[in-house]
Amino acid sequence: MKKTVIVILLVLSTNGYSQFAKSMFSKDPIINLENWQKQRVYFGYYLGFNSFDFKFDYKTPPQADIQVKKTTGFNVGVVADLRLQEYINLRFEPGLYYTKRDLYFPGVGDLEKDYLREVNSTYIHFPLLLKFSALRTGNIRPYLVGGMSTTLNLSSNSKSQDDNSEGKFRVKSWTAAYEMGVGIDIFTEYFIFSPSVRGLFGITDELIRDNPPLPSGYTDNIDSMKSRAILINFTFH
User: Fold this and answer.
1) What single string gives the DSSP state of each residue in 89-125?
2) Same domain for 73 and 60
3) Coil, strand or helix: which one is 231?
4) Which CATH number does the domain housing residue 104 bear?
5) Phi, psi (degrees; rounded to nearest 5) at 171
6) How open is the CA angle 184-189-192, to the nearest 5 degrees?
7) Does position 152 have pLDDT exceeding 60, yes or no?
8) What residues does the Outer membrane protein beta-barrel domain cover (predicted)?
9) Which residues of 195-225 are buried (b: 16+ CB within 10 A; e: fewer)?
């Protein structure tokens, strides 16, 4: 019985792959959703992953850089796509992004509670992007995407009166960035699957300095702290 089931599954999967390959890569492919992207406006959603970092600029060269330990976070959001012309679309992709970074401050104490700061971030992300699509070939259409974004950090601690002397690392609630990336639209029979990879580059300083008048080994020498990120999204239309 098990062998019969395995054979049936293999036959079905082989047949499914053959249909997919024919629709995508044959010389005379089956054209899926031929008029879908000719709509003036269409919508979708995305799921994905992120890896956020910080870029530090210092007032004076430090003896040792602040170390950032990155983790893999996740993204989820919706897409609104406005067709401007055949090859250019305006996209709004609001979403929820979660990430975590550990900061290690060299020379600040000997205990982990002194030199380690965990930065948990829950972002509401608002990117406004231009999508430049290439000519569609069969059921494949690559594209470039780029634009500006603004982000609200729900975990910023920006309203806290405590600073690093009380173990509280603070960043600003709102930040801005620019984004650039590449992707590909894959037209299936029922929907468009669009994987993409994008770089995010912060343009505003996020750091809130520690309270005066006491000197701070955490923030005094930091001229600016800006986010950097790699975003991988899987979009469905």
Assistant:
1) EEEE--EEEEEEEEEE-TTS-SSHHHHEEEEEEEEEE
2) yes
3) strand
4) 2.40.160.20
5) -130, 165
6) 30
7) yes
8) 39-206
9) ebebebebeebbbbebeeeeebebbeebebb
Q: How many domains does the chain have?
A: 2
Evaluate whether 53 touches 67 at the Cβ level (below 8 Å).
no
Provide the residue range defining the domain that includes 13. Answer: 1-30
| Residue 4 reports pLDDT greater than 70 | no
Beta bridge partners of 72: 51
The CA distance from 225 to 203, in Å, is 9
Q: Is residue 81 a contact partner of residue 41, using CB atoms and an 8 Å limit? A: yes
Ramachandran bin of 188, using left for φ above 0, alpha for ψ from -120 to 50, beta for the remaining angles? beta
> What is the reported pTM?
0.82
Considering the domain architecture, whether residues 102 and 9 belong to the same structural domain is answered as no
pLDDT range class, residue 16, cuts 50, 70, 90: very low
Contact 161, 48 (CB under 8 A): no
**With 50 as the cut, is the pLDDT of residue 177 above it?**
yes
Task: Summarize pLDDT for 207-231 with one digit per residue, the tens.
Answer: 999 998 888 889 999 999 999 999 9
**Residues 48 and 26 both lie in one domain:** no
Smallest Cα–Cα separation from 227: which of 202, 203, 207?
A: 202
CB of 193 closer than 8 Å to CB of 234: yes
Write out pLDDT tens, residues 180-197: 999 999 999 999 999 999
Q: How confident is the model at residue 167 (pLDDT cuts 50, 70, 90)?
A: confident
